[in-house]
Write a structure and sequence with these properties.
mainly beta; 13-stranded antiparallel β-sheet; about 0% helix; about 60% strand
Length: about 350
């Protein structure tokens, strides 16, 4: 099997033994996820939809998740101007265990959450995705709301199916980048408008059974370069990546596969410059942080230490045909997260 095995035929994701049929990567959800095929206990199953909508000046992040014995529904507002700031508000639910009925595919359906404070919905309709949200008492007693549309023409995505080194544990994940964004977010009398010429949304759609203690690295971004859409997804720490990595470039709706990427984090502070290097020399970047969206939770059984760092990336990426893409001050993020949950 090659270092990056591409899965190209439709078949069930899991076999009758509850393990992955064909570890590897693909350009769409050719492997069909069926929760009923999972052999692990329900409390170990993790399902989530996460959207990040990013401009040079501000961003919004939206999560609806069912992580077995805990549900985590969150909204983040991030502002990168002169005095960068962010606020993340999270609603935790005990033992959702499939009550949210998250769809088995990212291609159709509605993902939604509602309580007396937060109403959030993700809809998929014929080449478009819509994010709507109203969050009472989001921050300083003021509400947050948004209505955002993401344009998704026929395009490649990055899909990865990797096992963990434990029976019945697997990671099935899709990243859809370079979706042009329009619409708005509103908080404290300020309206944040997205411009589809320059602003993009990314979907992180995941289903799987995780091991308890994990550290991962993930980075993603999108930019318009002379009316060409360009994006990247890089990362590791999500299971056993012997069959494939999830490192790719996106260019005008097509995926270009990368090999291994290394994150070179600063020693003293996450807000010092980072570097990214690649085994195939096709992703060589410098990253200057602007804002660290950090969160540290310690509930003994559940521990999370997160640093999602937003900043500007510059360097060179190389497409499959050898074309070099020069990137200058691309607003994006890179993160290191350690979870025990």
């Amino acid at each position: 099997m090659s270092r990056n095995h591409e899965v190209t035929t439709n078949h069930p994701l899991l076999g009758s033994d509850g393990n992955l049929v064909e570890p590897g990567w693909s350009r769409s959800l050719v492997q069909e996820y069926d929760r009923s095929m999972i052999k692990a206990p329900k409390w170990r199953i993790k399902e989530w939809d996460y959207y990040l909508v990013l401009s040079d000046s501000f961003a919004g992040a939206f999560t609806i998740s069912d992580d077995g014995y805990i549900g985590l529904q969150s909204v983040s507002l991030l502002v990168f101007d002169d005095k960068p700031w962010e606020h993340t508000e999270t609603v935790l639910n005990a033992f959702p265990m499939e009550k949210l009925s998250l769809p088995s595919s990212s291609t159709t359906g509605i993902t939604k959450y509602s309580d007396n404070r937060l109403q959030m919905k993700f809809e998929v309709n014929e080449g478009k995705r819509r994010i709507t949200c109203h969050f009472d008492n989001f921050y300083t007693g003021k509400p947050f709301e948004c209505d955002i549309s993401l344009n998704q023409p026929d395009m490649d995505s990055m899909v990865i199916a990797t096992p963990w080194n434990k029976n019945h544990a697997f990671y099935y994940n899709q990243k859809i980048n370079t979706m042009r964004a329009s619409g708005y977010m509103e908080y404290a009398g300020q309206r944040y408008e997205f411009n589809p010429k320059t602003d993009f949304g990314t979907l992180d759609w995941g289903r799987g059974v995780w091991t308890y203690d994990n550290t991962w690295y993930w980075g993603s971004g999108n930019i318009d370069i002379d009316e060409n859409s360009f994006g990247f997804n890089i990362g590791y720490g999500f299971g056993n990546t012997k069959a494939a990595t999830e490192n790719v470039l996106f260019y005008n709706g097509k995926v270009h596969k990368l090999d291994d990427i290394t994150f070179h984090l600063p020693e003293k502070s996450y807000l010092e410059p980072w570097k990214f290097t690649s085994s195939d020399k096709r992703f060589e970047m410098d990253f200057v942080p602007v804002l660290d969206r950090s969160a540290c939770l310690d509930y003994k059984l559940i521990v999370s230490d997160q640093h999602q760092v937003f900043g500007k990336m510059s360097g060179t990426a190389v497409l499959d045909d050898g074309t070099k893409i020069s990137v200058k001050d691309m607003m994006c993020f890179a993160e290191k997260v350690h979870n025990r949950y």
